[in-house]
Amino acid sequence: MTSPYPIPGKFPDFEQFMVDLLTPIETTLTALPASGTDLQTAMPFFWVRVVSGSTDINEITYTAKVRIVAAAANRAAAQLLIGTAREAMLSTPGTRVNGVLVDWAEESAVSEVKYFPPTLQRSQGVADLPDLDPVHQLVEVGFTVHARRQ
């Protein structure tokens, strides 16, 4: 027997919510494939993440800052794919997705956790690693999603 989802009295798992919402559209991942070959093989797909979030002052509503990345064979295909994710996400307020009731969802500036990129030490100084999307196959959007305890 599996535990109920969403867990009564708890805030929803926003990554699982996005997987449930977007998987009928396209394969949805919460982590990128381990290698470049695996990444290319998995395309097209959505990569979803919760970047940050907080509760309101009464701890009734949780506001999650989330990010959806569409990966496809080229930028034009990724832009079409992200458009379907945008429509799906913006249609969720007041509805249930696999039991999760969403109060509000809106597009917001893509928020990124501040990581310092790894660097390569060289005799002449420091060089950042190369662009992770050199052929521009990824398009991302950010959203703010509000949900109460379920």
Poorly predicted runs are: none
Largest beta-sheet details: 5 strands, mixed
Helix-residue proportion: 10-25%
Radius of gyration: 17 Å
Alpha-beta classification: alpha+beta
- The ordered string of helix (H) and strand (E) elements is HEHEEHEEEEEE
How would you write the strand order of the largest sheet?
1-2-3-9-6
Shape: elongated
Question: For the residues shown, what is the average pLDDT?
Answer: 85
**Share of residues in strands:** 25-35%
| SS summary, helix count | 3
Number of beta strands: 9
End-to-end CA span: 20 Å
Please characterize this protein's 3D structure.
- The chain has 150 residues and is an alpha+beta fold.
- Helices cover 21% and strands 35% of the residues.
- It contains 3 helices and 9 strands, in the order αβαββαββββββ.
- The model has no long low-confidence stretch (mean pLDDT 85).
